């Protein structure tokens, strides 16, 4: 019994089909891996942007608290108040609650910093002395 060139492993058509199938599978695997890498990269850049916004928000809150403590800004329950340039898109507001202790010289101030366009809002707390000149009640 003799084997012809078209039988079995030596069939050129079958070899081409196998090679084509390997190439298509290789391309599909490469595309899936590239898609995973691009997805991970997008996720990382979004996380970095979120961290940057949170850091900026914290910096602006520290600035607002410092202005209140140095009596450059008054503590009043009004707002939102806009920050100066270049932070016009950020705003802050305060909420004041007096201490429940009769003789306590402290009041609780809650400062909320927000950016509506970026959908960011963080709240920070501190204690201030009641007798400071930033007190909006006595002059």
Task: Describe the protein in words.
By secondary structure, the protein is α+β, with helices and mostly antiparallel strands. The chain has one helix at 12-69, and strands at residues 81-82, 91-98, 106-115, 120-129. It has one domain (8-129). 42% of the residues lie in helices and 22% in strands. β3 and β4 (120-129) form a beta hairpin. The chain is rod-shaped.
Question: Structural class, from secondary structure content?
Answer: alpha+beta
**Number of separate domains:** 1
Total helix count? 1
Largest sheet: 4 strands, antiparallel
**Strand order in space, largest sheet:** 1-2-3-4
What's the order of the H and E elements? HEEEE
Helix percent band: 40-55%
Q: Give the strand tally.
A: 4
Shape: rod-shaped
Q: Please mark out the parts with pLDDT under 50 across 5 or more consecutive residues, or reply none.
A: 133-139
Report how far the terminal alpha carbons are from each other: 116 Å
Q: How confident overall, as mean pLDDT?
A: 80
Features:
alpha+beta; 22% strand; 139 residues; four-stranded antiparallel β-sheet; single chain; disordered C terminus; 1 helix
Concise structural overview:
The protein is an alpha+beta fold and 139 residues long.
Helix and strand layout, with pairings?
Blueprint: H1 12-69, E1 81-82, E2 91-98, E3 106-115, E4 120-129
